[in-house]
Design a protein that fits this description.
Number of domains: 2
GO molecular function: ribonuclease P RNA binding
Shape: globular
Keywords: Nucleus, rRNA processing, tRNA processing
Helix content: 25-40%
Number of strands: 6
CATH architecture of the largest domain: 2-Layer Sandwich
Pfam families: RNase_P_Rpp14
InterPro entries: Pop5/Rpp14/Rnp2-like, RNase_P/MRP_POP5, Rnp2-like_sf
Function: Component of ribonuclease P, a protein complex that generates mature tRNA molecules by cleaving their 5'-ends. Also a component of the MRP ribonuclease complex, which cleaves pre-rRNA sequences.
């Protein structure tokens, strides 16, 4: 049976620069599960746990892609604002997850992220103080694109991907 999935694109926002080093699959997964448990109890946690996973993570940009079943997406999204910290090596780093986009495929999330990054770069460009800064940002803007890549197994992650 085909299972509908949703992909939730978030960014980890923190004032603490050390927070970047603790952004890892396990820490994010635990923080999200803990928030779901606090907000929706054991029932909500069980509903979300069925297909929940941290699908992609970039510690440098703080970008996180979560996957869940379509029918538990609202439970997951409503708990995300309650993530208050990430824990790594017994250290706690205050942060929050800013939800950027919810999509049916990884590809739609990638496309959204490119547009989002382009908008962020344009805002930076408007606030440039010197020509060197301006050139660097313009170069980054030109490199914003999605390259066609087929996975080795030939599978395309989409709405009804089964595992």
């Amino acid at each position: 049976a085909a299972l509908s999935r949703r992909y939730v694109l978030c960014e980890v926002v923190s004032e603490d620069p050390r927070c970047r080093q603790c952004i890892e699959d396990r820490a994010v997964g635990l923080a999200v599960r803990e928030a779901i448990g606090r907000v929706h109890g054991d029932y909500g946690l069980a509903c979300c746990a069925i297909s929940f996973t941290v699908k992609y993570l970039n510690a440098y940009t703080g970008t996180v892609l979560l996957r869940c079943r379509k029918d538990s997406c609202r439970l997951l999204c409503s708990a995300l604002p309650f993530v208050r910290q990430l824990e790594s090596r017994n250290q706690r780093y205050p942060c929050f997850l800013n939800t950027l986009h919810v999509g049916g495929t990884i590809r739609t999330c990638q496309k959204f992220l490119i547009q989002y990054n382009r908008r962020q770069l344009l805002m930076l460009l408007q606030n440039c103080t010197n020509e060197e800064e301006r050139r660097c940002i313009q170069k980054s803007l030109l490199s914003c694109s999605l390259t066609e890549e087929q996975s080795p197994s030939g599978e395309e992650e989409d709405d009804d991907g089964t595992e």
